[in-house]
Design a protein that fits this description.
The chain is α/β, with parallel strands linked by helices. It is built from 16 helices and 18 strands.
Amino acid sequence: MSVESTEVRAGSYADSVTLMQVSQRAASVEGVEAAMVAMATPLNLDLLTRQGFAPPTATPNDLVIAVRAVDDAALRAGLEAVAAAWRPAPAATATQTQAPRTTASALRGERQGRDIVLVSVPGPHAFTEAMDAVTAGTDVMIFSDNVSLEQEVTLKEAAERTGALVMGPDCGTAIMDGFGLGFANAVRAGPVGIVAASGTGAQQVTTLLDLAGVGVSAVLGVGGRDMSAQVGARATRIALKRLAADAATEHIVVVSKPPSPAVEAEIRALDLAKPVTFVLLGPGHADLTAGTEECLRRVGVKVPSWPIWGLARAGTVSGEIRGLFAGGTLCAEAALIAGPGRFVDFGDDAMTQGRAHPMIDPSLRLDALRAELADPSCGVILLDVVLGYAAHADPAPDLADVIEGARPPVLVSLIGTPADPQGLQEQAEMLAGAGAEVFASNAQAARRARELVGGAM
């Protein structure tokens, strides 16, 4: 009979990536049947219950450590693996410099003049750190999500006064001076500068450009809400002026989730003295692939045939389209193109509280995929797999294990480049080998899903 332990550590915090790694370490111990180390958010408590643990009384500010094992010895070993992760590091010696405790202190003294501050803390605490950077006139990338709209507006109003660029909140992707920040792909350097109110949208555009042989000078993410009526494209305007003044940038692309029509009109009316291609999601706009193709034509490069891996099955299928996405923009685009169906963005703020982003930790989506594959009303499954720095080191094997021999067709939009650390070709071949149809273009994958359920192309 199994034995288990559930412990609540009140007021104890660790970031979601660390907790994922600790959970994996404990789960790998011989004899451990289940292990979960996570902040006690409602989502994580629900997952704990589904793993068979009795849900403890805890708040989202508390840490939960739950381990189940085949016997007492294995349980002790699993708990020891968890404990090892919290052993304090050796104390600093007298000759070592103590690390700054706040962003403001880091920007003072000898650290002054840093080009950018990267904020990746729980959303409720991100505003203070970001405002320290903005007040100092330093650019800031806010990777954190769950930052309020009111705080975003306050930050960007302050940035207009100091000249700082606020990238975010929930800015997942940027490339500056050739370095990727957050989820960025290994793309070649080139003449196209991108302003992106969309992380995975920017990744789709940059990877397609790279596959066509065109590189980028910079990717300046501004957060998915920047082109809303409330935020008014404040960061977009600053980013556009930066690229317009950048000697390495010859052509500018603006990528965004559906913008406010009034804000879109104002941005289109700006005189930047450089050509601009707008790649904006929403009714009446071209999809991300078509927008990228327009950019290629405008810079004088032939549009290639985008790669597809895996054999296409003939005929149509019965059932609904189910979309399980890690990228919010890719999810929105697929829903627009594929038509009726059920589409879930596992990177949504509500799904990442106390958990690592699904590009890093695929476990929640893998569970949903298993459930959809077993559902007789499911006709086609659409997935995205986003490669690049900071993403899962090797996402294809776990997915391939789940979809091998699946009844409904599985279509994968694989967002990446040959230079990405995971290996674009290797990932594509493994997924195709498990039976998936794999597309470099998310839009093409969505159209294929619509075709399979009998919709017009």
